[in-house]
Amino acid sequence: MDLMALPKAELHVHLEGTLEPDLLLALARKNQVEVPYSSRDAVLAAYQFGSLDAFLKLYYAGMAVLRTPADFTALAEAYFDKVASQGVRHAELFFDPQAHQDKGLAFVDILQGIEEGCRRARAKHGISSLLIPCILRHLDEASALRLVDEMLPHKDRFVAVGLDSSEKGRPPSLFVKAFQRIRDAGIKTVAHAGEEGPADYMRQAIDLLGVSRIDHGVRILEDAALTREVARAGIPLTVCPVCNVRLGVFGSLEQHHLPRLIEAGLAVTIHSDDPAYIQSYIGDNYVACANTLGIADSTLKTIARRSFQASFLPEPERARLAALVP
Ligand code: HPA
Ligand code: ZN
């Protein structure tokens, strides 16, 4: 089966994680931002991560080159141009507004820049998209609450709010108030949990933040009762197999728990996370799961259909897209 062409939804991708070395260098030149690299190869050579935090350090450093709304348009447009050939029909993009505050970029400026990239993607490739700004969990609650205040006047322009960044020692319980305000405004929530943090963080994400999906969640098997509950409730887990390996969550792809998650009846989907940093987009992840983990074509088709069903599109559109999967 042609897994690249298989229609799919990307539900776990950080827009800033799609910043390819060539665009990073071009924006650095345009915006006169100094970066410690002089070539694409030098950038890629620096991308060695043994942990989430090692990755995040380079990921936040790379963002320094994003200075204007037009930069975000270029970033989003380049991302969609890339994944148009990897079967993506719909994407829900994470982005990190707090990571751009020090550069004087307001939430609404970033939003407007990304929206223009999304409009171009729909016109050029017929790819639909929705936006999910994320709260950075390494920052404090006051910063999260300020961001919520800044975002809510524009709540019709994003579909959910997420929680990302460094996980260890930063439980979802720290952000209950911020997420309560978001839910009170009728906005959906998602959270990264169970990537490096314990299964208990997934329980907190569900019980305290009211998440509709869990991002990663690969450590859920450490809690058998939670595994049964999440499987029964059908809460989707947006798993990023190749990224997990590159960030040291698993020693190798062969050791990834994806087959066991599927066996446990969990509603897993397959995604890329930070494809430019990992050099592996969503279609590449599907291919790796087939070739290295031996996931059957029929299972990958189920996962592709599920990716549309687990999206935040309105139901008729979810069903229409899921029906494109052969
Ligand atoms: N985990 C947490 N935060 C992130 C990630 C991730 O994999 N990628 C970008 N921000
Ligand atoms: Zn992520």
Cα-atom radius of gyration:
18 Å
Secondary structure tally: strands: 8
Oligomer: single chain
Uncertain residue segments: none
Structural class: alpha/beta
CATH architecture annotation name: Alpha-Beta Barrel
The CATH topology: TIM Barrel
* Overall average pLDDT: 98
Can you identify the CATH class? Alpha Beta
Following the backbone from N to C, one meets helices and strands in this order, namely EHHHHEHEHEHEHEHEHHEHHHH
Bound molecules: hypoxanthine, zinc ion
* Spatial order of the strands forming the largest sheet: 1-2-3-4-5-6-7-8
Query: End-to-end span in angstroms?
Result: 10 Å
CATH superfamily: Metal-dependent hydrolases
Question: How does the overall form come out from the CA principal axes?
Answer: globular
Number of helices: 15
- Beta-strand fraction estimate: 5-15%
Task: Explain what this protein looks like in three dimensions.
This protein is α/β, with parallel strands linked by helices. It has 15 helices and 8 strands. The protein has helices spanning 21-30, 40-46, 52-62, 69-83, 107-125, 141-151, 176-184, 199-209, 224-233, 241-246, 258-263, 275-278, 282-291, 297-309, 315-322, and strands at 8-14, 88-95, 128-136, 160-164, 188-193, 213-216, 237-239, 268-270. Strands 1-2-3-4-5-6-7-8 form an 8-stranded parallel β-sheet, with helices on both faces. Strand 6, helix 9 and strand 7 form a beta-alpha-beta unit. The termini are close together. 49% of the residues are buried. Bound molecules: hypoxanthine and zinc ion.
